Amino acid sequence: MSPAVTDLGSIYQKELDHYNSQLKELQPNEWPSVPSPRERAFRLPSERAEEMAKHAKAWSFTQGYMYGSQMATLRDSDIIYPRDRYQVGTIFSAPHHTASSDDERWVAVNDPNNTATPFGIVHSKYRKMVVVKVFGEHCLCLPIYSHNGRGLEGKEFVKEYVSIRDVRDRWPEPAEGIHPKLLAAANYSHHGKIVRGKSCVKLSEFVSHRYDVPATMEGGLENRTSNSRERLLKLAGV
User: Which of 224, 215, 234 is nearest to 132 (CA)?
Assistant: First the structure.
C-alpha cells in the first residue's frame, strides 16, 4: 500500500515532468506510459479525503488525456479486513456507489461525488454502515445517513429510520422519528465521533459489502446498556 500524501501539487508536477519526457520518443498512435504502473490505489489522508477528492477527481480527467488511464484513490485507513472483523453490530465506512436520480447530461470534472458514465450518472461517497447479517463472502448492512445535517426533516417514511447517536456525545441531538434512538461507540483508534448530528439508520435499505473490498472499521453499536444491537435487528426484521 502506497503512503498517503498531503501535497497533491508536487505529485502532479512529477507526472507532468514524466509525461513531457516521454513525448519526445513516442511513435504514432502510442500513449505515454503511466507513472508507477504497478502501484495500488493512490492514498489520501483520511482526515482530508473528502476535501482532496475534489482535486484528485479533476486531475484524473487530465490523466485521461495524457495516458488514456485515470488514477483511482482511497483513504490511507482503507484496508481489506478478515471476515471475522465483520460482526453483527459492527460499524464501518467504505466507498459506496449508487445510480444517481439526476437526468443531467453534464457533470463537472471536479465533482468528487458524481461521475458521468455511458450508463448514466454514478453517485459515490464514503458511507458509514452497520452490519446486520454475515455470510461467507459478504455481509448485509444498513446505511447511516445524516441527510446533510437535516436528519428526518421532510422525510415521508419516517418509520423506516431510527436515530443513532454517539454514546460519548455529551450534548446529542434529540432522537427523531417513532423509534427510541440507538447508541454507537467508536473504536479507540477512531478519531472524533462515530456519528454526528441527526444521523439515522435506514431500516429498509439493505447494502451488500464484500469482505475483499477495502473499508475502515470505526466502531459498533453499544449493547451493554442500550441493547442497541438487538433492537436494530428487530426493527430491520433480520
Answer: 234
